[in-house]
Inverse folding.
């Protein structure tokens, strides 16, 4: 099959229009950053996140109201992996002191239920655990096992003492077990991230994206001319900014799509940088070749010819990549959804910017400096 | 060459397939056995059934060495796919400094807690922040650390050394406990200067695992029992186990003559001597240490935990294993099992210092250990009355060394020799220090993935890969017709190569890693597309098929090369940036680039050249 054979489009003449499109998108993105902000996941903010899978479908808004009144402040509740899964998130690191007592009494009730009247005393408690002592070593074994089955995280310390975790996850799970007794759940994942890790990760993410742009610029500077390197990096910056703007703009608007910045989204941004540069370099390579062959031709003709000649490849590769990313978006599960979303729009914008940002940049530069670009 | 690569990849992937198959089979067998056991004996407790099944599974797995080999060579799954616990821990330097300081006053406590707070928000470490604070307050560091003659820079560097030591110690303590806990394929590694990453696959009891990793280490010195005490106990254990096994297996045949060991086949021996068949005693040795294969260790532990067996072992003694394998036989680690006094003679608190050294006379590695005055007094008494007996050095219930006491040690300064090499001596130094100086760790990140989420992810990843491949393949054939098939062939090879390389390097496959493979499927055709389009252009200028292929390839090289190198760079940066799952993604992405280039430049080239040589008309699309 042949598409776009002998294309002869003058892309550069349309650059004024695409400048307007690009700057509008960037302005919208910047405005959205300013007014809506970017939602960071717990990877960056620190906090606790739990994913639960119930046996039967659950009413998410009902759970939300339940969980907002359990003393943990404003808890985020979202669906996770279909109708019977939920994701609960809070920025809290430990259970607040007021709630702590309530969790302890829940643990105590559970002990009383399992072994009525058992002799016990609390010998120690930290911000995230409580230590029970029993008179009878046998009880320690039985209760460590039984409380674990009841859903608490327990550990036997020695013959007479048992440790029970008092975490946000334990409290949320206990409340849900209590409120929805006939809809049991399993814990799919529990994440707890300390505040220090988050701030380090933020720094590392920015460093790695900037470093990627820098390394690309150096390499292309060597292989092409510096202005090409600059054009490519401007295009990449454009892609990252607009995709990030989309994250900010669409956050919380599309149900089932969790658009917060997590580590895997940062990985997707780096991949998008990799993809977009790939695309740009292929066109640049053709420009370079044309400049060598048609030394007397005008720069704009060479650039237009290069884009036209590589158009088929651009479209085929973008399509195949979009295919697989769409599949990831639909079938890849919740864990990969943000990742796939980034790439989906990243590829569209990356393909656009290779043609309408990177190349016009090179052209504008040569117009401004009145220099002829030669290889 | 292509055939060789393909064969290699398939060879590398075979263990993964075989391991999956045998695991399924074993599981089926076991569940069948469990059911039949329950129906034959309805009163049997679940714990007994599980014990028996575990024992059976071990024996199936041990019976065929290829099973173990396959499971070691298979593609490993990341925690996000198989479920488990991921922890990042940091050594709490402030707590360490609290232990190291001499004569602390209120100022110091104040400064230390301030420094600890500041360190939470800054990149500088607690040591340098605290040092700056002490200097600011007009004091010298020697007021609190080291001796009066030391200058500040020396003290700082020594404290930093102590900090680094604490990390090493914490890693040793953690690995020791994780090994004893019986987690399969744990991963413990150092990250940066003060952090430790621990991955525990298949762990669901989080609190238990956390306590295991965080609790303070217990170092003990216990006397090893002599063989005339140990052997009768082992004999008794052996007899009881033999009876039990007959009961569980429902064997009603008459009791065999257990003395005729020489005539028995290994199976018979295992039935009549369940203990001695896995815990080998060297009759020539003066010691009654039993040698146990690593694969039999859990089984032996479960034997020793049975109530009937516990009754035979006197209350004041216990069986303990070596912490590290004593030797390796036919690829299997051998551990020694000792019978020791339950009551420790001394605990690690008395140790002031330990140092690994080279003995100047014999040039053999030695470890010297110093005790405080109370410890030294006790030690003199113990060593004096137990000459020629062995004293085991035990950290958290695992024996690191059991040197023989050669004479009374009055000063508390002891010297331990007989280490194989300096590494072993260094290890003993770390262990001895662990008793004296704690290595407090804080958990700063904790992620647990349940097995069900992992299963879902595997299924989703696998389906997406298949679907992605199918869609891209169909599109390529639709667009490029016959040459599309060539591209699809190259794509297929690419995926096989990626998997082969992952298996060959024992890399871990994570969910983002699978995403990387899927993405590669979409992007891998790029090189082929570039070449095809170029050949098509060349053909349209009227060149012959052969010449078009030649120049089509030649003219695409620079584009393919430059574009893939830049993508590869971002892959490297991604690998540096990420941890665990993200590294898996970066890895598959980079491997994917290399493999797709190989497929496009070598595999499709070969097919095209063959087509051209046959005189076929090349017609792209």
């Amino acid at each position: 099959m042949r598409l776009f054979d002998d294309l002869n489009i003058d892309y550069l003449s349309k650059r004024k229009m695409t400048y307007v499109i690009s700057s509008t998108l960037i302005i919208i993105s910047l405005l959205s950053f300013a007014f809506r902000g970017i939602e960071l996941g717990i990877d960056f903010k620190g906090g606790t996140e739990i994913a639960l899978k119930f046996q039967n479908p659950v009413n998410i808004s009902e759970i939300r109201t339940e969980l907002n009144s359990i003393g943990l402040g404003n808890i985020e509740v979202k669906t996770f992996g279909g109708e019977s899964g939920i994701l609960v998130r809070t920025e809290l690191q430990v259970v607040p002191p007021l709630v702590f007592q309530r969790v302890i009494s829940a643990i105590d009730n559970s002990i009383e239920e399992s072994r009525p009247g058992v002799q016990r005393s609390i010998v120690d408690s930290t911000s995230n655990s409580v230590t029970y002592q029993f008179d009878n070593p046998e009880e320690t074994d039985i209760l460590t096992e039984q409380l674990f089955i009841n859903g608490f995280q327990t550990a036997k310390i020695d013959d007479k003492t048992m440790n029970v975790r008092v975490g946000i996850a334990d409290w949320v799970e206990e409340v849900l077990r209590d409120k929805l007794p006939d809809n049991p759940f399993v814990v799919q994942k529990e994440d707890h991230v300390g505040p220090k890790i988050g701030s380090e990760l933020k720094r590392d993410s920015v460093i790695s994206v900037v470093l990627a742009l820098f390394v690309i610029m150096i390499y292309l500077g060597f292989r092409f001319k510096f202005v090409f390197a600059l054009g490519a990096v401007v295009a990449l910056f454009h892609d990252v900014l607009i995709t990030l703007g989309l994250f900010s703009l669409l956050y919380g608007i599309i149900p089932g799509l969790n658009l917060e910045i997590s580590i895997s989204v940062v990985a997707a941004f780096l991949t998008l940088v990799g993809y977009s540069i790939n695309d740009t370099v292929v066109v640049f390579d053709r420009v370079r070749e044309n400049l060598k062959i048609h030394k007397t031709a005008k720069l704009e003709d060479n650039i237009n010819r290069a884009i036209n000649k590589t158009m088929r490849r651009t479209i085929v590769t973008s399509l195949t990549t979009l295919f697989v990313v769409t599949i990831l978006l639909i079938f890849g599960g919740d864990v990969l959804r943000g990742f796939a979303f980034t790439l989906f729009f990243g590829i569209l914008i990356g393909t656009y910017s290779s043609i309408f940002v990177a190349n016009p940049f090179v052209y504008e530069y040569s117009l401004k400096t009145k220099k002829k670009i030669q290889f | 060459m292509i055939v060789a690569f393909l064969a290699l990849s398939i060879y590398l992937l075979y263990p993964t397939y075989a391991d999956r198959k045998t695991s399924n089979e074993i599981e089926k067998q076991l569940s069948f056995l469990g059911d039949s056991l329950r129906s034959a004996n309805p009163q049997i407790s679940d714990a007994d059934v599980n014990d028996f099944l575990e024992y059976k599974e071990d024996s199936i797995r041990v019976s065929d060495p290829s099973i173990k080999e396959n499971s070691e060579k298979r593609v490993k799954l990341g925690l996000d796919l198989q479920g488990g616990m991921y922890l990042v821990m940091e050594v709490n330097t402030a707590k360490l400094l609290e232990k190291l300081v001499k004569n602390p006053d209120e100022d110091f406590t104040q400064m230390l807690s301030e420094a600890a707070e500041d360190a939470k928000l800054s990149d500088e470490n607690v040591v340098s922040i605290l040092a700056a604070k002490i200097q600011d307050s007009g004091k010298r560091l020697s007021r609190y650390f080291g001796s009066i003659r030391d200058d500040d820079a020396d003290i700082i560097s020594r404290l930093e050394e102590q900090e680094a030591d604490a990390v090493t110690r914490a890693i040793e303590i953690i690995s020791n406990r994780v090994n004893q806990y019986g987690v399969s394929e744990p991963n413990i590694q150092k990250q940066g200067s003060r952090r430790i990453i621990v991955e525990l696959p298949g762990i669901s009891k989080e609190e238990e695992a956390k306590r295991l990793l965080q609790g303070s280490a217990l170092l003990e010195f216990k006397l090893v029992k002599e063989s005339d005490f140990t052997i009768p106990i082992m004999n008794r254990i052996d007899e009881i186990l033999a009876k039990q096994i007959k009961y569980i297996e429902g064997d009603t045949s008459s009791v065999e003559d257990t003395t005729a060991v020489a005539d028995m086949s290994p199976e018979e021996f295992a039935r009549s001597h369940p203990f001695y068949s896995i815990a080998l005693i060297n009759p020539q040795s003066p010691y009654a240490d039993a040698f146990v294969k690593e694969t039999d260790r859990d089984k032996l532990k479960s034997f020793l935990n049975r109530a009937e067996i516990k009754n035979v072992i006197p209350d004041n003694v216990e069986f303990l294993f070596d912490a590290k394998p004593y030797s390796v036989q036919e690829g299997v680690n051998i551990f020694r099992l000792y019978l020791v006094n339950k009551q420790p003679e001394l605990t690690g608190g008395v140790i002031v210092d330990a140092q690994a050294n080279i003995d100047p006379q014999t040039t053999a590695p030695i470890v010297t250990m110093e005790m405080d005055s109370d410890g030294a007094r006790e030690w003199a008494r113990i060593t004096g009355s137990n000459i020629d007996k062995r004293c085991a050095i035990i950290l958290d219930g695992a024996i690191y060394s059991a040197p023989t006491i050669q004479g009374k040690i009055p000063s508390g300064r002891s010297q331990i020799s007989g280490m194989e090499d300096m590494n072993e001596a260094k290890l003993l130094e770390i262990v001895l220090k662990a008793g004296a100086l704690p290595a407090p760790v804080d958990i700063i990140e904790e992620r647990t993935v349940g097995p069900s989420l992992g299963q879902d992810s595997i299924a989703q990843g696998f389906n997406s890969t298949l679907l992605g491949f199918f869609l891209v393949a169909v599109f390529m054939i639709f667009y490029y017709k016959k040459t599309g098939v060539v591209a699809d062939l190259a794509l297929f090879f690419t995926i096989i190569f990626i998997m082969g390389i992952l298996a060959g390097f024992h890399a871990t496959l994570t969910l983002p890693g699978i995403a990387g493979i899927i993405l590669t499927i979409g992007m891998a055709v790029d090189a082929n597309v570039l070449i095809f389009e170029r050949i098509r252009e060349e053909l349209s200028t009227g060149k012959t098929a052969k010449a078009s292929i030649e120049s089509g390839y030649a003219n695409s090289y620079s584009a393919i090369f430059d574009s893939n190198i830049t993508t590869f760079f971002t892959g490297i940066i991604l690998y540096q940036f990420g941890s665990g799952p993200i590294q898996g993604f970066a890895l598959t992405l980079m491997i994917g680039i290399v493999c797709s280039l190989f497929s496009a430049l070598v595999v499709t080239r070969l097919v095209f050249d063959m087509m051209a040589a046959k005189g076929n008309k090349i017609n792209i699309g």
Notes: The CA atoms of residues 27 and 167 of chain B lie 40 Å apart. Residues 85-215 of chain B form one domain.
